[in-house]
Amino acid sequence: MLMPDGEWEPHMEFALKSGINYFDTATSYGADMEKQSESRFGEILPPHRDKIILLTKIHEREPDKAKAEFEASLKRLKTDHVDILLIHSIGPDDTLSNIADGVYKVIEQFKAEKMARYIGFSSMDSAERSKELIENLDLDVTLLAMNPTNYGNFIEVALPPARDKNLGIIAMKVMRDIVNDYAGPKELLEYAWAIPGAHSAVVSMTGMGPLEENISYASNYQEGSTSSAKMYELENRLSPLACSEHLVYAKPGYYDGMIC
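^ that's the sequence the OP posted. Answer follows.
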C-alpha cells in the first residue's frame, strides 16, 4: 500500500468488513517506505487470523538466508504460520536444480512443521522456468502474471501444467499499467476471473474509491458472464502493450516492491 500511516489503516479495515479474505505481501513490499507491508499487516490482521488467507513470499535462495527471512516475516506479521508461502519472483536465472536443492527444501520443511499450510512460487519473468518447476516439484499454489497483454506468455506456457497438476492458481499484474488508459477495471477483473483454471486474482489499489469499485465488481460478477469472444477482443486490443515501454515490470532490474 503506497499510503502513509493514518491513511492505509481504514482501507484494510474496510476491505475486511467487505468480505475480502485474501491478503498478499512480501518482505520487499514497502521496504522503502516508513513501514514495511508485513509490519502493517501485523497491526491489523491478527484479530482476523482465522478468517483470512495470508500469503507472504521468500526472496532469498540460499537455505539459511531463506529460513531467517521467513522467521522475520512471521514476527512482523505477528503470527506463527501463513496460509501460503511462495518462493518470490522465479526468473530465468533460477535453475530447477538450484531451487530444488535450495529454497524449495526450506519451504517444504516449513510446510511439514505447519508454519505454512501451502507452498509454491510466484513469477512474472519466466513462463518456461515456471512450467519446469510446476512439472517437477510438489507444489500447491502458483501466482502468475496473467492479463490480456499476455506479457510473458504465462497463459499459454505455465497455466496448462498448473491446471493439470491441480494447483491453486492466482493471477497477478491484472491491471498494472493497463487500467483506465487502455482498458477499464471491470473488464480487466472479469478477464482474470474468466481465465480457465484461475482461482483468484491479487490487485493492488490505492484509494477508497477504487477499492469500493472493485469490491462492487466482484460482488456482482457472475461466473461464465465473460465470453471467449470478449476475452479475445481484449487480448487483441492490449497485446501491443506487452513491452517495457508500457509495463514497468517488463523493465530490466524491476522487482516487486520497488517504488517506481
